[in-house]
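# step 3/5: fold
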Amino acid sequence: MSTPASTSAQPFTIAIPQSTLDDLRDRLARTRWPDAPAGAGWDYGADVASIKALAEYWQTGFDWRTQEAALNGLSHFKATVNGTGIHFVHERGKGPNPLPLLLLHGWPSSFLQMVKILPLLTDPAPHGGDAADSFDVVVPSLPGYGFSDRPTAPGMGVAQIGNLFATLMTDVLGYGRFGARASDLGAGVSKEMALARPELFAGLHHSGTSPFVFFVPEDLSAAEQKFLQEAQAFAQAEGAYAMLQSTKPQTAAFGLNDSPAGLAAWVVEKFRNWSDCEGNVERRFTKGELLTNLTLYWATETIGSSMRLYAESARIPSPNAGKRVEVPTAMAMLPKDLVSGPREWHEREYTVVRWTDLPRGGHFGEWEEPELLAEDIRAFFREVR
C-alpha cells in the first residue's frame, strides 16, 4: 500500500517525559569537565566557566515545564507530508485579509526563534502596525529538528525539504499563494521552493549571506571582492563546524547526543559568536531562552539529525543549480550577522527589489530584533501581497 502524499494536520501538544528531564539533570550532575589554558576565555572555543555556570542552572534552576506550558499556548500541529512527519506552528492573522507567511529557521536554531515575532506579524495593530498588514504565519520545524521526524534514509537536503514545505502549504493547509521569510539553512530551503514553484510566492524576505562560496564569477565589483575576503576569513576562523557537519556529522553526534554539557558548548558558542551581543551572550538571550532551545534538541535527540542536513545538502546537487530566483526578494541585512555580501552579489541569485541595512542585530534576527524585522517584513509584503 503506497504512502499518501500528505495527511491532514492534527493538533500537537509538547509533552517531554519526566524521565527524560530526570536523566538530563543526572547527566549534568556527572559531567566530566575539560581543562583549559589559564585565561583562555572563549579564545579556544567555548569558555569552560561560562558553560559550567549555564549547565549548573540547567540542572538546578531551569524549569522546563514553565517553558513547555508557555509554548503550548501556541497552535501546534503535525502532518505527514510525503511520508515525513512535520511539526509546525500555525497562527492565524487578525487583519481583514491575512497573507500566508512561511517562517523558516536554520541551525542551531529552531522554531523557537520565531516566538517573539509571531504576534507582531499576526496582529500588527496593537504593536504599532496596520491590521491590513497581518499574516497567517506557519512556522515549521525542519525535518531532523525538534518535533519533526528525523529522516531515516539519505537524501533529505534543502531542495527536498522545499518540496515537503510546498506540499505542506498547498495540499495540507490549502494556501495557493504565500510569502516566505528565512535565513541560514531556511533561506536555502525557501530559495529552492521559489525556484521550483515560483507561482506560489508573493515574495521572499531573506537575511544574511552564506560565507561558504563555491563559485566565484569573473566580473566582481570592488564590494564583492571585499566580501569574498571577509568570507574567506570567516571560513578560516569560524567555519570548522560547517566542514565537520558537511562531511562527518555522525562522528560528532556520538558525543553531543550523550553529553548535555557538550551539546551546550557546541550550540551556545554559536549563539555568542553569531549574535549582536558584544561577547556577552546573555545580553541577547536569557538563560531560559538558551536552555529552552538546548532542551528541545536534547529531549528530541535531534542534534545529530540537524547536523546531517549540512551533509545531505552538500552531497545532493540542487535540481535548480544555476537558476536565478525571479520571485521579488527583499534583503534585510543585520550588521552582526556572519558576513554581509553587497547587493550586487545577491542580485546574481535573486530579483532584489528591496534592500534594508538594519541598525542592530545578528544571525538570529527574529529572536534578537523582532520589532525591526517585523516592520521590514510588513513593509515589503505590503507592496507585493
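# step 4/5: annotate
The chain is about 45% helix and 15% strand.
# step 5/5: archive (pending)
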